[in-house]
Amino acid sequence: MASKYEVTVKEKKGSCDNELFEKMAKKGDITSVKLAEVVNQFVTLNGYAKCTIKTDDKEFDVFYLDTEEYGLISSGSEIFANSVIDYYGEVNRLRLSEVKTKKGKTYKAVPVLSGKKEETQNDLPF
Questions:
Q1: 18: CB partners within 8 A, 6+ apart
Q2: Contacts of 39 (CB under 8 A, 6+ apart)
């Protein structure tokens, strides 16, 4: 008997807002980089999608961020998804950061305000 694998694309914008992305998601053909592997990197935002995946064992949400530098980046962090969605359309560059919460660590997208030299935490004067 085949395993259950159902994907519902709940929201999609930019480069993910097309039938090809939806087809890839529903067939399980999306290959993505985990957000934890690219923390503190700067990325150029192309689009995003929020998906719910149901299998025989569980149901979970996955957020996909499409970037110039890494292609699709995936995360289960609701805080990260909300931060991307909140700034989408206002900025095109983000720094992917890790933040501590009461429940442990999670991720957040921090907007880059200018296209000038990208600063890391160590470069900041404070």
A1: 12
A2: 96, 97, 98, 107
> 11-56: per-residue pLDDT in tens?
999 999 999 999 999 999 999 999 999 999 999 999 999 999 999 9
| Those residues with Cβ within 8 angstroms of residue 126's Cβ, 6 or more apart along the chain or in another chain | none
- Enter the tokens of residue 26: 């529903």
Q: Bridge partners of 124?
A: none
Query: pTM score, two decimals?
Result: 0.86
Give dist(CA 27, CA 45) in Å, integer: 24
Q: What is the DSSP letter of 119?
A: P
| Neighbouring-strand partners of residue 64 | 49, 74
Q: Is residue 118 within 8 Å of residue 111, measured between CB atoms? A: no
Alpha-carbon distance 79 to 61, whole Å?
Answer: 12
